[in-house]
């Protein structure tokens, strides 16, 4: 197989569906699903996914570059890897999704919608991920899932990570890696959700994070130099090399409320150009939906992923507090 991305976009399986290099064995499992195993003893298991949203192309190009280097034998591999291009049909169309947002369908939520390609794709990704996690070669093998995205809107933090609800402490080396990847902020969920990373964390105890690495742009228009820190950190992770030096620790935010679009009456009281991490003062009206109104409840809250056009019943925005600021206020 010459090129993981092009092979996936072609819609055809490669003539050879498995092979070996001086450093690894690879196997094509399905369109956009490739498994790689080091010839030596693996140190951990990694799921690396991109293209869950078909218009977020820079992470797809980054992942494809790294997989290409591994397949050509230009880089050693230290870990078991499941590489995933999440929604090939949407990638071909250059659209976020065709009928349903795949990143709201995990954890069996695909069963709540009509039978369609994206429901079947979410199921297939769940099956492939579960099989991968359960193929461990030794009893204790750290599991990480990094799901690579870019955001629809501009952001006061250009690169940030969203971590799913997790009752366990996050491993220090996982947070260290996110820092080395150049993330400016980390957002910690406080409720379960239908994302791919929540599926891995909740069901398989994987340290997982959705990485938002910039603005969503079409193939061929990305300035990949803006993603250099993340690409270098991924290359170091795959090859077992030392991580690049981090500039500074990311700021930390916690989700305190979710704005949900319940009906066609929904109105989001934010400008269409409102950036992620824009601050709102206590008491500000954020949205209304018939009798339901959403207000800022803390002294200051920051908005994330505001989107009034989501399907009914889905998240139209998250409100955050900055952890350090909240801690300082409580200590006064």
Name the descriptors:
alpha/beta, 13-stranded mixed β-sheet, 25% helix, succinylglutamate desuccinylase activity, EC 3.5.1.96, zinc, Succinylglutamate desuccinylase, Aste_AspA_hybrid_dom
Question: What portion of the residues fall into strands of 2 or more residues?
Answer: 25-35%
Q: How many beta-strand segments?
A: 16
- Which spans have pLDDT < 50 for at least 5 consecutive residues? 326-332
* N- to C-terminal distance: 61 Å
> In this structure, how is the largest beta sheet organized?
13 strands, mixed
Helix content: 25-40%
Cofactor: Zn(2+)
GO molecular function: hydrolase activity, acting on ester bonds; succinylglutamate desuccinylase activity; zinc ion binding
Enzyme class: hydrolase
Function: Transforms N(2)-succinylglutamate into succinate and glutamate.
